[in-house]
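Lab notebook: predicted structure, single chain.

Context: the supervisor wants predicted structures on file for every construct in the current expression panel, including those that have not yet been purified. This is the next one on the list. No modifications to the sequence; it matches the entry in the shared construct table.
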Amino acid sequence: MNAPKPATPPRDLTQLKVEKTCSRGLAGWLGQHRLSLAITSYQSGRIYLVGSDKQGRVSFFERIFERAMGVVGNAQRIYLGGLYQLWRFENVLRPNEVIHGQFDKCYVPRNAQTIGDLDIHELGIRKDGRVVFVNTKYSCLAELSTTHSFKAIWKPNFISKLAPEDRCHLNGLAMVDGEPKYVTAVCKSDSVDGWRERRRDGGVVIDVQTDEIVCEGLSMPHSPRWHNGRLWLLNAGTGQLGWVDFEKKAFVPHAFVPGFARGLSIIGNVAAVGLSKPRNQRFEGLQLDEELKKRDAEPWCGVQIISLVNGDVLNWIRFDGDMGEIFDISFLPNVKHPMMIGLRTNEIRDLITFESEIPVEAGAA
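Prediction complete. Output recorded below exactly as produced.
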């Protein structure tokens, strides 16, 4: 009788070696537009804040948060979904203030709400400031609950009950005017893990407010984003960035990207698209394989900045080594050189800032 194989020990996230390269024009482009990027990778448990420093170089600031998934943020606040918590970070610096002589934003973890392992995917911030998230395990949209793991606020019509079964692989969320409006799902399955057999053409986009399916026939769609009157998304199974033709309920390709596309952020007339290398059987049998062979291309792990005008790649970031997947991306406008306080450094104990309602009194004579 064969002895059972020893279990693979969990990887030590702190020991992963990741090589980073980028296009020559990236630092100048980020600095010129006063932009930074937040990039997550659940496989490596990393969040990267990518900006530009005073010397005109690209700055990569990384922190470890286990299973870093959905990220959404701005110059003041970042939300991040993790393995079993939803994190809120606040920038503690005032305008024109810097820390360590260089960083113009310092995001500090101020709250980590324990929600359990919901396979949390993408996030959105309502106009009243509440965070909404895709609860993929329970096939629904959810909000935080004061008492419980989550408060379910919407599920697709074809999902008959809330169950921890990842039936349709609900994954992406588009906010419109500060409210959840569109979601993506890999299929319309109502059985446990049923989406895996529908990856090639079962994908749908659903209007949350009307329950209507507004686009179908997609291949593993991800990351819907509303921008300038158009719904953009990633048709990951074909490796394409494109948009939805609501009249035809069809996807209109705009640009091919060499990798499994997941994670999208749009500002002005450019989109940042996350690319991952295919892994195990999850991505096999998709049109993406055929498209890569046709172009004699190897799949990337990284980010491409793509023009929404003509589909050209304007800038790029590439990750190699012990990292093969990107999950989500968020542009951070008006942020040039950001940093984040991590959980594994003394800084989280020593960096103390405060506000006060106590009037300032003159010193004793």
